[in-house]
Predict the 3D structure of the following.
Amino acid sequence: MKIKLYINNQLKNINIHEGETLLETLRNLGFTSVKYGCGTGDCGACIVLKNNVPVNSCQILTASVSDEKITTVEGISTINKPHIIQIELTKAGAIQCGYCTPAIVLCAYALLKENSNPSIDEIKGAISSNLCRCTGYIKIIEGIQNAAKLYSNLFQEDN
Amino acid sequence: MSQKIKNLGKYKYRSVGKSVEKIDSISLSTGKAKFFADYIIPDTAHVKFLYSKHAHAEILSIDTTKAEKIDGVIYILHHENTEQIPHTTAGQGFPEPSPYDSVMFDKTMRFVGDKVAAVLAETPEIAEEACNKIKVKYKILPALFDYEIASDKGSPIIHCEKTKKYPIPIPYSPNLNIAAEVDINIGNLEEGLSESDYYFDETFYTHYSSHAMLEPHGVITYLDETGRLVIITATQVPFHVRRICAMVLNIPIKQIRVIKPRIGGGFGGKQEVFLEYIAALFTLKTNRPAKISLSRKDVFRSSRTRHPMRVNIRCGVKKNGHINAFCIDALMNTGAYGSHALTVLSNAGSKVLPLINKAEHQRFIGKSVYTNLPVGGAYRGYGATQSYFAVGQVMDIMARKLNIDLIEFYSQNNIKKGETSPIFEKLGEGKEGVKMIVESCGLEECIKKGVEAIDWYAKRDKQIEKNNKVHGVGMVCLMQGSGIPRIDMGSAYIKMNEDGSFNLHIGATDIGTGSDTILAQIAAEAIGTDIDEIIVLSSDTDLTPFDVGAYASSTTYISGQAVRKCGLKIKKQILEVASEITNQNIEELEILNKKVQWNNGSLDFSEICSYALYTNNQFQIQATASNISNTSPPPFSAHFAEVAVDKETGEIEIIKYVTTVDCGTAINPKLAEGQVEGAVVNGISWALTEEYRFNKQGGMINADFGRYKIYTSIDIPNMETILIPTHEPTGPYGAKSVSEIAINGPGPAIANAIYDAIGVRIHSLPIKPEKILELYNKKNN
């Protein structure tokens, strides 16, 4: 079936098959920052933002989000112009295998957009759906904290 | 930075010892970095497996007619149309110290999750549908689930075929379900036990667990423009993949190129070669690119796990606190196949007994047995984890019996710098070990710093009660190794470019650990340049030199030394060219800040390389180096846990967890800390919440992250990680390993803390509230 999709502020007309998940659609379109980790909505590696709210794209049918605004990490950064959250995660040593990282970046982005001065518990809560087996989360939390501290007015331009 | 340099004492480095940013971080976090699944190869077909639903069965017939008729099905593989070449799936050095007990597709199914057949189809959905249409007739065989009775008379025999054997001489008795056996004696154990003042006999059990790396296993294979087979695979061992695939497919190694892309974590789980040759065979049969992408459920039920182990300890100690006799008797469940059956077992002794080297009488008895349960494999900690759960608690039991503080008891019995252990020489990996002396040991300092950070003496034996919760503290000391001596080899190639940059090509395999970064730091240090000038290419069997891969805590120590040697050769060539250009004696030249300098002048690296490439006596500044080690210096670590136990519910809260680690020089302290923190949280999660639950048929019933609970950001305790710098003279710039050791601590440290709080001894994992409550109530009634 043919549908419209707003991805990273661009309107795309695409063909999808019946029962296609947003995870499949995004990966087929080349947004490979969105990762498969479990397919059951338990690991968070496939998280994208739907109207700025983190959702597991493996649990969403693409057909159901044709009028929604979808954001992947490609929508907030490029390799030559990384987002401050990515820079601070890097500086904190928070990225090991990096498989969970794009989704964590999006969760942190959504958090900081709502709350530019989050407590440690609020940061932990914001990434509590993101499993990471490499880091033990310590440096991820530190990196997000640093991003928040440095740029508390970071998202003003977006709003 | 001044702090870092100060910590390194007299060893002052330019790149080493600095927390430089991991070089692939931005690429990974912006989603640009490519994992195997991100490679788009036109015309790729997809593979799905039909797994056995029976724990033990013989396939009487297999009928694929209906499956083949489905539109989009391309090819089906099973035991009747594939060669039966015995091999091990363990990605180890050759010849492997694991039994050749696997074939690509077997007629006998040995666990729920064993592969019956594989389908190649145009889409994953069609492949899945076709799997369901394959008709299989089984003869159900009696299954063996209790590994403690595996060798008893009447137990089902799991591997009967005469073709099954080790490629090296190892005691192997499949007729008794024995996959490996070890028995090492130092002194005379029984005599030692009879001479001791106190005797102990304690048994502990550790359980299955999943590596739970976020990226499931997978591979893409295709034929390149010259007809060679290319394998892009999520592996820790690209060169072993090439060798094992060549053997199982019966094609020459030169026909295969293995490329390791970015890897979404491994922890040992990707040190297995069990998918690549199947995708490759589909490609060879059909000329189609083939992709295998395991589901999470597949990873849980059909890939590899941590071997469960029963560890019995008999030991004796003198009244003065001297441990004089110590015996570890380990029985390991290797599951349906013997992947790492000998070496994980051996490490339960070899990475543990040397820590208490003062005992004159030591023995290690080990037996790995087959069962009809999931297959064990390499898993961070590699047998030491299982053994330390027992040994760490027995140390606590002994100290308490003697009424000696556990800290003092460890200090009295621990190995020290300049000392050795006969175990190093007697117990190796499939052969005798290597005699060695501990040349760096920061364990005393680790203990001291940990005692301060946890405030040991204010909390130990105090049973402080707050809100119906009793607090307690426990600790444990650990060691591991750095690579396998005289077996593990790493190598490096470096060339210089005319802008003064360098290409570093290494076989070493970065699976998220940061080895590309720390090896670039080592190269930059050796040459005298910045890490920004090093372009890293790793793990491509066509383009990079050999390396055994990412396992045995070897990369920093083994491959790092290869890179250092290679960098020093480059440095020499740079100086020689500079000498030719300037007519200065080499002795008067020195490299500083990407320049060659002398009394009254300097030359940029770019000028030197341009001269070498274009001006006179032209040549490429380039070098290669390989490295093996005659020793495997142990990193050391002390772990401290403070817990609060709820006497009403049995729930425990970890109030604080302190890890101190001596990894020699931390090449990159932040990345080293990250290794420790990740390992500790994995260790806590394993000890407290993770659990394989099986139904009566031997099938795992909780094969998803909803029911197999690994730690999240809100579960982690307050943690402190302290690196204790030492200088290991045999390591690159004083470095030892760091990646595995810290996973061994949480089980015993937490169990000892629970004992300190409520006097209950935990003999089996996982430590669940109901278990604590039951033991506590039993004790008080």
